[in-house]
Design a protein that fits this description.
20 helices, globular, 484 residues, alpha/beta, 2 domains, Rossmann fold, binds cobalamin
Length: 484
């Protein structure tokens, strides 16, 4: 008799360097928020479910034995998230170990990366029994009900008598209001997870707002075009403001959580949506801080005033990906690729207006900038760097709340840059899933950009040049963060 219907296991980046670097950001202790939604849904449908965060368990007890623990729990299905490609080596190794030691366990993968590379994974790793592709809420219920008739499970690709069968992606979630993302108790050691996630990732608790995205940022594997290709999603859906606030309230009641990271950005089309959330939060009188990304300018003064009125600003942060501080480069990008990706369509004057408003309402603002955008030359990088220095000097002398951050770009599976790399003048090193596995297995999981490298070169920039520039920019970032 099996005790658990399903155990979800969150993998680290790799197992090789885990014990020495488990507390490093790039061991990737953070789990996809969808796991909480699925665990709660399955519980409500009568299934016995639990989540184990493997890097967290090793952090708490270096002698933790997953196999011993699973033997006690005796699950029918073990589901590993392969959402972020950075978990590819760790995810595979955990499933391999489980299949080897507990051959009766049905081994499952899911998430964006597992979906994008589903065929390659099923062909090359026979210890993976199946993958749920795309949105997984309904398919995972179907899987637990029909483990002996897998042809009835939507979105599933699986093995049958040595052959691989793909049921195709027919389930695309249309209503996510029935999901809860605050049911932390399904995770072993959830209190420790909340604390370490904040301490290691510097990210408050993520809240689901939406599925999909209306934009096409060229490096994003979750944009409009990519979502169609990967998950068969043709439009963006939102949770109702009151359901988002229900989750936040519940989280604050059951845990010490005082901050959230909104999983969808603000842009002219979502200002009203966020302001409805803010109104409900103010009615509840919650002492909350929030991280929010601007996905497109302009953002109105009315919205920023509303944000400032709602949150504890000391720990809140609004992020904006400027990508490049060089105005002339952004113009060049816009003229070449603006019909796909409108994120470069703003002037330095727009940036200055944004900083003025942020300073007016004392909202901390962090710019995210990149090295290695398409058709970006050494001169473009220099201009971007010089503008960042100018900002650093002017902002720190006026004691403003503006800072910068950047990380080496790792091309996301299924993003425009990867799908149409020739068109963007990019030569991606990781062409297959196997390449990503190798890259992640080799990572010593130290602080980026120390051992995190870009995985491509461009028409104008070499990999070595981009890695060097990322390290130089990291100093500017650090000074800006310390002086903001
Ligand atoms: C919000 C968000 C975040 C938030 C919240 C993350 C979180 N905890 O979930 C923050 C800002 C913290 C974040 C961090 C990162 N993110 Co992010 N993020 C997003 C964003 C904008 C929306 C995601 C979302 O709302 N998902 C909805 C939730 C409910 O879905 P879900 O958690 O994925 O779960 C569903 C499925 O994936 C699947 N599933 C997931 N796990 C499993 C497991 C099993 C067994 C099964 C069957 C199914 C399954 O079923 C779930 C329900 O349908 C997307 C872009 C986009 N528009 O999609 C990028 C995106 C997903 N992120 C991305 C990346 C790269 C990252 C980082 C690695 C960036 C970095 N270098 O640090 C980190 C991850 C850090 C870590 N692991 O420690 C990439 C992933 C590309 C890829 N294939 O690898 C995306 C696509 C953006 C991009 N740049 O391309 N992210």
């Amino acid at each position: 008799m099996k005790n658990y219907d399903i155990i979800f296991i969150h993998p680290p980046r790799n197992l090789e360097y885990l014990s020495s670097n488990v507390k490093a950001r790039s061991s990737y202790i953070m789990m996809p928020m969808g796991l909480f939604g699925m665990a709660d849904l399955l519980h409500r449908k009568g299934f016995n479910v639990k989540i184990i965060n493997y890097p967290l368990e090793i952090l708490l007890n270096p002698d933790f034995s997953l196999i011993k623990y699973l033997t006690q729990l005796n699950p029918k299905v073990v589901g590993v998230d392969l959402h972020w490609v950075l978990h590819s080596a760790g995810g595979l190794d955990i499933l391999k170990l489980i299949k080897h030691q507990l051959p009766d366990c049905f081994t499952l993968l899911g998430g964006y990366t597992a979906t994008y590379y589903a065929n390659e994974i099923m062909e090359n790793y026979d210890f993976v029994d199946a993958i749920i592709q795309g949105d997984a809420e309904e398919p995972i219920i179907q899987l637990l009900r029909h483990l002996n008739s897998l042809e009835r499970v939507e979105n599933l690709i699986y093995r049958n008598s040595g052959n691989i069968h793909d049921n195709g992606i027919s389930y695309v979630a249309e209503n996510i209001n029935n999901l809860n993302f605050a049911k932390v108790r399904f995770l072993d050691h959830w209190k420790e997870y909340i604390n370490y996630n904040y301490e290691i990732m510097h990210t408050p608790w993520p809240v689901e707002m939406a599925r999909g995205c209306p934009f096409n940022c060229i490096n994003c594997g979750g944009g409009s075009h990519s979502s169609k290709i990967i998950n068969n999603r043709k439009y963006t859906i939102f949770r109702s403001p009151s359901r988002v606030v229900d989750d936040i309230k519940e989280l604050m009641e059951v845990s010490e959580v005082k901050g959230v990271f909104y999983g969808h950005g603000v842009y002219p089309g979502t200002e009203k949506y966020f302001m409805e959330i803010h109104k409900l939060l103010r009615q509840e009188n919650l002492d909350l801080h929030a991280d929010l990304e601007i996905w497109r300018l302009p953002i109105s003064e009315k919205f920023l005033y509303d944000f400032a009125k709602t949150y504890n600003l000391e720990k809140s942060m609004i992020w904006f990906s400027v990508r490049s501080f060089s105005e002339s480069y952004r113009k060049k990008f816009n003229s070449l690729y603006g019909h796909f990706d409108t994120s470069f369509d703003f002037s330095n004057k727009d940036l200055e207006n944004l900083m003025d408003l942020m300073n007016k309402y004392q909202i901390p603002l962090r710019f995210f900038w990149d090295v290695g955008n398409p058709q970006e030359t050494g001169i473009d990088l220099l201009k971007s760097f010089l503008y960042s220095l100018k900002l650093l000097i002017t902002q720190s002398s006026s004691h403003s709340n503006v800072s910068f951050w950047s990380e080496p770009i790792i091309i996301s599976p299924g993003c425009l840059n990867e799908l149409y790399s020739d068109y963007f003048g990019i030569d991606v090193e990781s062409k297959t899933f196997k390449d990503y596995v190798r890259m992640n297995r080799d990572s010593k999981m130290r602080f980026p950009p120390v051992d995190v490298s870009v995985n491509y070169k461009t028409n104008y920039l070499s990999k070595i040049g981009m890695n060097l520039m990322n390290k130089i920019n990291a100093f500017v970032n650090l000074i800006s963060v310390l002086s903001s």
